[in-house]
Design a protein that fits this description.
The protein is of the alpha+beta class. It has one domain: Gyrase A, domain 2. Helices cover 18% and strands 27% of the residues. A nine-stranded mixed sheet has the order 1-7-9-8-3-4-5-2-6, with helices on both faces. β8 and β9 form a beta hairpin.
Length: 195
């Protein structure tokens, strides 16, 4: 089973009694449709509907979510989330030293990690899982990039610059990253009009 360890990724934890309501009101992803054991794409938009930050989000327990993003934007993403926090009962923290491992193929689980794997929901016709934590070296990052590109999965940085693309431009509407029935979130009006 092929795998790759992604050293350019970071994890942000959002937890607390108001975590789901807080995130549901600002992110494009519909958290009501986010099942345990899966990671869905999402974005935090500008009021004009352009992607400010992109990420994968998964449940990390009761009232707890894990947001996986590029490591070089993680501090800015965390600060932006803090701006929206106001009086919400949530804790926002960057998880240090967390290794992200992605595996694909017919048996896409890997023993390289200490955590339960989550299915990467962006891939509709391929079995791809992500694991968080663990140690080790290896894998094939070039094969991972080739797989991602072959399936039309766009990521900021290498495929498009942040602040310059709308969710529809990078197929977030096709990969489950935009909830059209969930209600308001930052930039929602523009995204709904584009749909």
């Amino acid at each position: 089973m092929p795998f790759a360890q992604l050293k350019d990724r970071a994890l942000i934890s959002v937890s607390g009694p108001d975590a789901e309501i807080f995130l549901q009101n600002i992110l494009t992803t519909d958290l009501d449709a986010l099942a345990a054991g899966e990671a869905k794409p999402g974005a935090l938009l500008t009021p004009q509907g352009k992607i400010l930050f992109d990420f994968l989000i998964s449940r990390a327990g009761e009232n707890s979510f894990r947001l996986e993003c590029r490591a070089d934007i993680s501090d800015n993403f965390m600060r932006r989330l803090m701006l929206y926090k106001l009086r919400a009962k949530v804790e926002i923290a960057k998880l240090d030293q967390e290794l992200v491992t992605v595996a694909w193929g017919s048996d896409s689980t890997t023993s390289q990690s200490d955590s339960t794997p989550v299915a990467d929901a962006r891939f509709r016709d391929a079995s791809v899982t992500r694991c968080y934590g663990g140690t080790g070296e290896g894998g094939d990052p070039a094969a991972w990039q080739a797989l991602r590109i072959a399936h039309g999965i766009a990521e900021s940085g290498c495929d498009y610059p942040l602040g310059d693309a709308f969710p529809h431009d990078v197929l977030l509407d096709e990969t489950g990253g935009v909830g059209f029935r969930k209600g308001c979130y930052v930039g929602q009006e523009v995204v709904s009009r584009m749909q």
